[in-house]
Amino acid sequence: MKKEGRILIVDDDEDILTAGKLLLKRQFSHVSTCNLPEHIPTFISTQHFDAILLDMNFGPGESSGKQGFHWLKKILEINPQSVIIMITAHGGVDVAVEAMKLGATDFISKPWQNEKVIATVSTAVLLGQSRCETQSLRAANQVLVQDNNQLNQQEIIAQSDEMLKIQTLLQHAAPTDANILILGENGTGKELIARDLHQKSLRAHKVFMSVDLGAISESLFESELFGHKKGAFTGAHHDRIGRLKAADGGTLFLDEIGNLPLHLQAKLLTILEQRKVTPLGANEAVPFDVRVVSATNISKNDLKTDACFRQDLLFRLNTVEINLPPLRKRIQDIEPIAQYFISLYSKKYQKPEKELDNDALIAIKSNSWPGNIRELRHAVERAVILSQTHKFTCHDFQIETVNKNHIEKHNVIKDEPTELPQDLNLEVIEKQAISQALKKHRYNISHTAKELGLTRAALYRRMEKHGL
Length: 468
Ligand SMILES: Nc1ncnc2c1ncn2[C@@H]1O[C@H](COP(=O)(O)OP(=O)(O)OP(=O)(O)O)[C@@H](O)[C@H]1O
Known about the structure:
By secondary structure, the protein is of the alpha/beta class. The protein is 49% helix and 13% strand. The chain has three domains: 3-135, Response regulator (Rossmann fold, 3-Layer(aba) Sandwich), CATH 3.40.50.2300; 152-323, 3-Layer(aba) Sandwich (Rossmann fold), CATH 3.40.50; 328-466, Helicase, Ruva Protein, domain 3 (Orthogonal Bundle), CATH 1.10.8.60. It has helices spanning 14-25, 40-46, 66-78, 93-101, 114-151, 161-173, 190-200, 218-226, 243-246, 262-274, 300-303, 311-317, 331-348, 358-366, 372-386, 394-397, 401-410, 426-440, 445-452, 456-466; strands at 3-10, 28-34, 51-55, 84-88, 106-109, 180-183, 208-212, 227-228, 240-241, 251-255, 276-277, 286-287, 291-296, 320-323. The strands form four sheets. It has a five-stranded parallel sheet with strand order 2-1-3-4-5, sandwiched between helices. It starts with a strand and ends with a helix. Adenosine-5'-triphosphate binds next to helix 7 and helix 15. This is DNA-binding transcriptional response regulator, NtrC family, contains REC, AAA-type ATPase, and a Fis-type DNA-binding domains.
């Protein structure tokens, strides 16, 4: 059966062209010939070839190989990935060696042996195909990085003194390679800040790889982060690159680092110290180069206890520490953030961009927002969709001003009524259940997921599906 392979033979000897074509056509899907080297640029700029067989000498009596060298260089100038096999005169080994120094892959001498030609061309075709694949993967990767970076360009709204200080800190820390630990309650913008850091860093053109350590099961931790070789364990059907290596050159965002069990913290520390990782089932460690940004909603005090977190790992992660205050402690930010999301969602849902009335403004500023900016964003989205009045009112935000002080003082979240909604569509019920559970657990994803009987990853997926 013919193999997939595109070959070009360039020689001024028509007999060689005919013999070569006859031989190789039996083996490969596409064989072209060219008897004038001046036509090479047109051939290779209009068609792709996995391998090119190029004669060293053109014209009667030529044996210096000068023209072969000239066309070899020309082809590599046009496409440096070209795989070129030189066709040399009998005994022209010196010339062939010289050609290989200039970038040729292999050579065959005339008169040739058919088996040798087929073997040499087969290897060259495979090399050409893998170069081509590498090139297109690189290009695809570049597009993905660009797309990912565009997605990361959500604006950070910051007017409070606390956030302005953090922004100054970010400006200074971002271009360094210092490891950064971001602390803050759920929904305070830790991931947004991490992405912003990456954008402002010298690694911005490379990948931002986010790993939710709270969502990776213990059994999958090593294979996810370190990768594995085919056959390393039951179900490992292919080699798989780990996330540490996949983030090479870029930023690795370790989210929910505080949820990592102590024994896995030890493994992570070793890997980060050695800057090398051995995929499961491999014998050799491979180096990686990442800047580590981590985040957790665990308080600083808890992080500083040995029972909760390894102190040596903490020192490695927190060269620079960023403490994101909860929204209730940066009241100056509430109005501009609300305005930002009003504008965003009014456009998205094609609604007029309305103002907040006075009471609504006071209410959103004095609400405790246990789910922080994520909760405010969600409240604004709902208000934009449902509001019927010409300005947004307290009612649109479902803020119970009467209970506010009570909530603040007693640090409790009032359960929402639990009766079923009138609409018994399962999707609607699921959204309501998730929304209530989030509020009940102050937007703590781990606790909410536990109550709902979901994994954190499954909860995130559903939140995204329902726009929560
Ligand atoms: N300063 C800000 N300006 C505008 N939007 C913000 C800001 N901070 C956070 N957000 C938005 O709030 C939501 C929650 O942010 P993010 O996911 O970064 O928080 P987090 O602290 O990482 O949450 P979690 O701990 O639950 O993973 C996102 O939609 C984010 O875009």
